[in-house]
Amino acid sequence: MSPPIRVLVTGAAGQIGYSLCLQIAKGDVFGKETPISLVLLDIPQMQSALEGVQYELQDCALPNVNEIVVCTTEKEAFTGVDYAFLVGAMPRKQGMERKDLLSANVKIFKSQGKALADYAK
User: Which residues are in the Lactate/malate dehydrogenase N-terminal domain (predicted)?
Assistant: First the structure.
């Protein structure tokens, strides 16, 4: 068997990230025979929710998942990544206009883009 690919999902504790993690872990994205090291990233305030996602995925006992790593820092999460799904973003809050949301999310994706360049394979 080949070495596992390191796959990162940002915003892994959110609805989209959670659903995507399961699809990746089941082998629907890279194939059922591809071993995976799944890296879950979210903000520190979501640490316990991230661990919940980790436990749920571990309970599935999916044969192609070698490990599931929970991270709350970009450096740790992006280091050595082969593939990254950047789905984590700030949610729109009451009273926010779309331009406010875009401004906040630009900062997030700019930082993640730099982390990809600095730490990913």
Answer: 6-120
Rounded Cα distance between 8 and 94, Å, is: 30
| Domains, the chain | 5-119 (3.40.50.720)
pTM, whole model, 2 decimals?
0.92
Tokens encoding 81: 């990544």
> CB count, 10 Å around CB of 115?
23
Token couple for 120: 């990913």
Give me Rg for the CA atoms of the chain: 15
Read out DSSP for the chain?
Answer: -PPPEEEEEETTTSHHHHHHHHHHHHTTTT-TTS-EEEEEE--GGGHHHHHHHHHHHHHTT-TTEEEEEEESSHHHHHTT-SEEEE---PPP-TT--HHHHHHHHHHHHHHHHHHHHHH--
